[in-house]
Every structure is written in structure tokens, then in C-alpha cells.
Amino acid sequence: MSNNHGDPAETERLLGFGPERKKTRRELCAVLFTAVLIVSAVIGIVSIWLSLSHADSYEKRNVILMISDGFGPASETFARNYKQHVDKLDYNYFTSLDEILVGSSRTRSSDSLVTDSAAGATAFACALKTYNGAIGVNPEKVPCGTVLESAKHFGFATGLVVTSRITHATPATFSAHVISRDMESDIATQQIGDYPLGRQVDLMIGGGRCFFLPNSTSESCRVDERDLVKESKERGFNYFSSRKEFDNLEPGKDKYDICNTYHMSYEIDRDSSQEPSLKEMSEKALKFLEYETADSDKGFFLMIEGSRIVKKYVDEHPGTVMISVSDHETGGLSLARQDSGNPEYLWYPEPVSLVKNSSYILSKELSKYWNNDREDYIKDIVRDGLGIDDVEDHDLSWLNQPRSQLEYEYYLANITNYKARLGWATHGHSSVDVNLYAYGQGSEALRGNHENIEIGDFIVEYLNLDLDYITEKLIRHVIKYTFHQATDSTHFYKRDHHHCNHK
Ligand SMILES: *[C@@H]1O[C@H](CO)[C@@H](O)[C@H](O)[C@H]1NC(C)=O
Ligand SMILES: *[C@@H]1O[C@H](CO)[C@@H](O)[C@H](O)[C@H]1NC(C)=O
Ligand SMILES: *[C@@H]1O[C@H](CO)[C@@H](O)[C@H](O)[C@H]1NC(C)=O
């Protein structure tokens, strides 16, 4: 490992007092969370049910933790209703998730009833409640050992698979420790192993390449000149950036990293000749991790953001437990939208089923085209993209005015939402309990209503991990630094003073 233990600059980055500024656009979940997005999530549901008895206890253990960012109970119902509509299924149809519902997860963070993705995922990663924005640090901004790091320490293989940026809050909480989710340059630096623990993630697949490229290149969104692609290669990790390179990755040959530029495309917009699907990435990851651990008595820990496709894998590998849970609900989605006094007890999946592109993609088109025949162009966009032949006059004249891309995006989404009678109470997150799904050995322990941190506890217990040990390792290093150099984090320094005296 090429850690420079005790290097003040190193630790500065770890704590997040480094060069990172609020540079990146903050994630706007609401933007992503159009009805269109939900449709794409439905497509990922593969319904396979093979009933196996899990009476035996398997000692070689794997954990697959799937975090469906922003999915509340209404989204799950939406998915079922939608699938029933499209596939003409009976009322008593069960989705593959319905089959494995075990309970619910309570999502609040330490400083708000409404969590963000950073605190929401840190609850799973460190098994503790923390403040919104925290990446792998506790409410006092002290780094906390994660299930991924502890698993790595005990000889498990580790992986992160996402369609967002790999430096985005959810995957970041497992593999980095910074005081703010916006510090994505620092997160990337830690993810390639340049922090006190060294490289902890055996494989990372997802978007976010720009945070790994030096700021002197046009594609970069880093705050400094470091070339993390190069540095990661020097650490023995392969890097891929195209569909072809992804396809060519073979277990035993490569260790591998990042693909794509920013967030990867929504499933509905994805060009399969350019980008692998989440399903393909997950399958590839499972293949690699299985290969890596073939001769070991330890299995692996894999976090997949946003999917539900691996039940079959659990059936075939009985030491595996799969947990699927959201970090929080988004949008206050309601499956009905009664505006007036007259009861309207219905919602229509049909308008949603006609959508061909995300409103994000369509809004980009609308922002670009200002020729004289713009009206016709708008009609084309609405017809081809949303499946609506007769755009209303007031919609047409609204869309014909110059607006921001975001305004177009919301407006387009609302056209379909209104026709479907879907309501959204917020553009952000909400605090409702989310559904908890689990399948495989030991999953009975997750029955009932749980705090999100108990899902972290469950993983610790299942893999027999020790998070405190990792926390101590992280803190020891940090304290050394705060002794050397006074920073604005004096409360942090004081709080952990006694740790130093022990040594
Ligand atoms: C690139 O990073 C260097 C520090 O490594 C900094 O001095 C410079 O201002 C950065 N340039 C841009 C365009 O951000
Ligand atoms: C919308 O989706 C269709 C079908 O996948 C595709 O052919 C078309 O190029 C997409 N439109 C935009 C604007 O991306
Ligand atoms: C959505 O569309 C409906 C029908 O045109 C309209 O009444 C409503 O104000 C719109 N809502 C938003 C938030 O734009």
C-alpha cells in the first residue's frame, strides 16, 4: 500500500479541510424523479422465484446490499400497478420484491426528520445516525469505519456498482470519509486508495469519470491537477471507459474501475451499444467477486445502487443474503391526484406507458432549438417523447417561451403526471418509512420495523465484522494530524484528545 501515513496534507483531505470547494452541482433528486424514471426502474425487475430451503447454515457468506435511491412505498406500488397494466396481470400479481418484503426502515438522520442520501447511506455503512451531508463521518465529523472497510480487513472481496457517479453520496459513504458530500474530488482520491486504509474497494463500476481526471483536461470536474486514472493504474487497477472495454473485462485478468462521464443515462434513455445496463454491470461484478473469492473461506460485500435483479444469484449461492432498501422516499409521490371536490378514485398507468424518453433528455432538446418552426418541433418532441399526439394549446405556448432547462423538464414531466393523475408533494425527499426487502440466509432477523442503522448492524453481525476497529484506525491517524496543526476543527480535536493519550 502506498499510503503516506502521517502526511498532514493526506489527513487534511481525509477530513475534508482540503482544496475541495462547493464546486459540483448539488444533486436534485426531484429532477431525476419523474414518472419516466420509475418506469425505467420497473424494467429492471426480473421475476424469478425458486423456493429453496435455507435450513442449513452456510459459513462462506456474501452480502449484496441494494440501495434503491429515493424509492418509497408509493414507488413500489406504482411499479406493481404499472406492470399489472402493461402486462395485463391480475390484481393478485406479486412483484419479485413483494415476495420478499420483510418490514420497513425508518430513515430520519441525526439532524433532520428528512434525511439526505449521504446520512441515509452512512446509516447503512457505519451503522450510526449522522447529519445530512455526512460521508462516512459521525455527527462530530469524526470518520467512522464502514462495513465495506471492515469486510475488506477480514478478507472479503468488496465492490460498488452504481449508475450514478461513483463519487456520489450513496457509494461514497462506504468508501470515503469527508465532512460534506460535495467534496467529490476528495472522495475520488480516497476511493482509489489514497487515504490511511489504502485501497478498500476491489471493484467500482459506475459514472463519475470527470472526478478522476486532472483539471487541466476539458472533461474534468476535479478541483486539482491530480490524474487519478493514472494513479489508480499505478496501484494496479485497470480502468475502462467504453462499452467495448467493459465487455472485454474478464475475471482473473483485470481489476477495474470507472466508466462513463458523469451520471450514466437513465435506463429509458440508455444506448445499449454505448453503455452497459445496471443488470449487466451487476452480473459482471458478481462474476468478478465470485472469482476473487473462489479459493477463500470468505465471500464478498457488494453494494448495488438501485436495482433488484439478483434473487436468482442468492438461490444458487446459499451463503448469500440480499437486502434491498431505500435510503429515503422522494417526491411525496401519490398514486392519485384529485384536484377538485369531485371524488376521482383512480390513476392511469396508460400515459406513463407511452413515454419514450426521460423529460431530462427532452428538455435538453427543447433548450437547443429556436428556428422558426419551433412550434412544430415542440409538437414532435411531445408526440415522439411523451406519446401525446394532441399537445394542448396552453402547453404549446408555455413551451414556446424561453425557459431554463429545468423548467422545461418539470413542465414536461407534469404533462404526463397530470394525465396519469400522479401527484408529487415535494421536489425533494420525505421522511416516510421505506420498505425493507431481504432474501437469503439470516434474513428473518430483518422482519419488522427497523431503524436504518440496524441494517448496518445486521451486516456487521452476518459477516462478523468489527467497525470500531476500523474507526480506531482512522481516528488514530486523524488525531496525529490535529496535534500538529491547529485547524478550525477545534471541537473535533478536543473531543478525541483522550484517544491520543492512550498511545
Ligand atoms: C487546477 O488545480 C490547481 C491545483 O492543483 C489549481 O491551482 C488550479 O486553479 C485549478 N484549475 C482550475 C481550472 O480549477
Ligand atoms: C427517444 O427514444 C427513442 C426510442 O428509444 C429514440 O429513438 C430517440 O432518439 C430518443 N429521443 C431523444 C431526444 O433522445
Ligand atoms: C400540471 O398540469 C396541470 C394541468 O395542466 C396544471 O393544472 C398544474 O398546475 C400543473 N402543475 C405544475 C406544478 O405545473
UniProtKB/TrEMBL annotation:
Where along the chain is Zn(2+) bound? Answer: D69, H429
**Reaction catalysis annotation:** a phosphate monoester + H2O = an alcohol + phosphate
Q: Which residues cross the membrane?
A: 28-52
Residue positions annotated to bind Mg(2+) are D69, H168, T170, E305
> What EC number is given for this enzyme?
3.1.3.1
Q: A Pfam family name for this chain?
A: Alk_phosphatase
Keyword Aminoacyl-tRNA synthetase applies: no
Positions of the catalytic residues: S117
One GO cellular component assignment for this chain's record is: fungal-type vacuole membrane
For whether the record's keyword set contains Membrane, the answer is yes
Keywords recorded for this protein, A-Z: Hydrolase, Magnesium, Membrane, Metal-binding, Phosphoprotein, Transmembrane, Transmembrane helix, Zinc
Q: Which family does it belong to?
A: Belongs to the alkaline phosphatase family.
Q: What is this protein called?
A: Alkaline phosphatase
Q: Organism source for this protein?
A: Glomus cerebriforme
Species lineage, top-down?
Eukaryota, Fungi, Fungi incertae sedis, Mucoromycota, Glomeromycotina
